[in-house]
Specification:
This protein has one helix and 13 strands, in the order βββαββββββββββ. By secondary structure, the protein is mainly beta. The strands form five sheets. A four-stranded mixed beta sheet has the order 9-8-7-10, with no helix packed on it.
C-alpha cells in the first residue's frame, strides 16, 4: 500500500527508504517537493519561498494537535518540553517546621578546681570562683584544668526556620525509550480532505 504524502512512520532501519526522508528538521527545496510543501507549509521551518522544513523528531515524541478537555492547546509544528529540569523551592509544597516546639539539651562542662582567669577562652571551662580579697571585682571563674563534671542538662527554647539545601541537580523528565528512525513520505498518494 502506498503511503500518504507527508505520512510519518517509525522505521527500524538506519536509512530512509526511497520516497521517504528522515524527520530531522532538514530544509527541502520547494521547487522539488511542491506537493509535500503544499501539505506542510512552513510549520516546521523554512522561508516559504525557496525552502520548507521537515518535522524534527530527533529525541522528541510526537503529540496530537488541538486542545483536549482540560489540556493546553497544541499547534502543528509547536515544540515544547525539556529532557530535564532543575527544581526550585516553587516546585514543592509549602513546609514549615515549628522550632518553638523543639527543645535542645545543653550540657556545660565545669571544673571543681579553682578558677584562675576572668576571661573566657576556647581552652577554658567554668571553675570554682576565687575572690581572695572579697572585693567582688574580676572574680576568676575559668580554668585551663580539665573538666571534672558537667552541669545538669537543661532545656533551651529554639527559634528560627529550618531550611533544606540542595545541589540543584537537574531531574530527568524522559520516559524509558528505544531509538528508532522516524521517516516522512516524500512520495505517495496526495491525501484528499474529508
Amino acid at each position: 500500500m502506498d503511503p500518504f504524502l507527508g505520512e510519518v512512520r517509525m522505521f527500524a532501519g538506519n536509512f530512509a527508504p526511497r520516497g521517504w526522508a528522515f524527520c530531522q528538521g532538514q530544509l527541502l527545496p520547494i521547487r522539488q517537493y511542491t506537493a509535500l510543501f503544499s501539505l506542510l507549509g512552513t510549520a516546521y521551518g523554512g522561508d516559504g519561498v525557496n525552502t520548507f522544513g521537515l518535522p524534527d523528531l530527533r529525541g522528541r515524541s510526537p503529540i496530537g494537535t488541538g486542545q483536549g478537555p482540560g489540556l493546553a492547546g497544541v499547534d502543528i509544528g509547536e515544540k515544547a518540553g525539556s529532557e530535564s529540569v532543575s527544581l526550585t523551592a516553587n516546585n514543592f509544597p509549602p513546609m514549615a517546621v515549628n522550632l518553638a516546639a523543639v527543645r535542645a539539651t545543653v550540657a556545660v562542662p565545669v571544673s571543681n578546681g579553682d578558677a584562675d582567669s576572668n576571661l573566657p577562652a576556647t581552652n577554658r571551662v567554668l571553675a570554682k570562683s576565687v575572690d581572695a580579697d572579697g572585693s567582688g571585682v574580676n572574680v576568676s571563674i575559668y580554668s585551663e584544668s580539665a573538666a571534672t563534671t558537667t552541669l545538669a542538662p537543661f532545656q533551651a527554647p529554639l527559634s528560627g526556620v529550618a531550611t533544606i539545601g540542595g545541589a540543584s541537580i537537574p531531574v530527568s523528565l524522559r520516559d524509558p525509550y528505544l531509538g528508532v528512525s522516524m521517516i516522512i513520505a516524500t512520495e505517495g498518494i496526495f491525501p484528499s480532505r474529508n
